[in-house]
Design goal:
Layout (H helix, E strand, L loop, with lengths): L8 H14 L6 H9 L4 H16 L3 H21 L2 H4 L15 H33 L4 H20 L2 H15 L2 H6 L3 H11 L18
Helix pairs in contact: 3-8
């Protein structure tokens, strides 16, 4: 039996709206990232790959983070000088709609969102129980495979400089999202990984209501 977190639906809906309003300025950033990842603009993607590779190879990661932090400080100073706090004294959340939903539609929408969150939490619980089963070797064969993989990864990290591993991971991820990668990719590896994950027995959970039966 897997437990799930109880969330009050009206409270969840009310708390979600201000967050959505605050994230509006970042909506234009997500399409830009998508264009880079999926090679919608190949020249831009190549420039990003070259820039990231150069930063990692030259070990300029610390300098890049410093430049990003200074950019944030510059934006904060610009907002202060422009008196942005006086222009935007509050976050306005608009709940109006051109096609107003009926009470029943609102209830169905809220119920669907609540069930989605519940399913995500249940899947997270199942994943944690499966990881616990591997860590304590309840799933003996799966634990052996994980230990072998972790040992191989540890040897790679000890022998190969970390920056080369990062560069390799970047190239691999970018190639797999390109047209060539989609052509070469088959679902057999993903299917086998899913079958392997589904075959892991989760650690059993027992619910007790009496204090003396609770583990100490």
């Amino acid at each position: 039996m897997l437990s799930f977190l109880w969330i009050d639906k009206p409270y969840m809906h009310w708390r979600k709206q201000p967050v959505q309003e605050l994230l509006k300025p970042f909506k234009s950033v997500f399409p830009w990232f998508r264009e880079i990842i999926y090679w919608d603009k190949p020249m831009t993607t190549l420039m990003v790959i070259v820039a990231i590779t150069l930063i990692v190879y030259k070990e300029w990661i610390g300098k890049a983070i410093s430049a990003f932090l200074l950019l944030v400080v510059a934006n904060m100073i610009g907002a202060r000088q422009g008196r942005l706090k006086d222009k935007q004294k509050e976050i306005v959340v608009c709940t109006a709609s051109d096609q107003p939903m009926t009470t029943r539609e609102n209830m169905v929408s809220a119920e669907y969102g609540f069930m989605t969150i519940r399913e995500i939490i249940q899947e997270a619980n199942a994943a944690i129980l499966k990881l616990h089963s591997i860590l304590v070797s309840r799933a003996h064969k799966h634990a052996n495979m994980v230990m072998l993989g972790l040992t191989g990864l540890a040897i790679l990290l000890a022998v190969i400089p970390f920056k080369y591993l990062i560069i390799t991971a970047i190239f691999h991820s970018m190639v797999m999202t390109s047209k060539l990668g989609k052509y070469m990719k088959n679902g057999q590896g993903d299917r086998r990984l899913k079958e392997w994950w589904d075959s892991i027995p989760p650690t059993p959970v027992r619910i007790v209501d009496e204090a003396p039966a609770c583990p100490k």
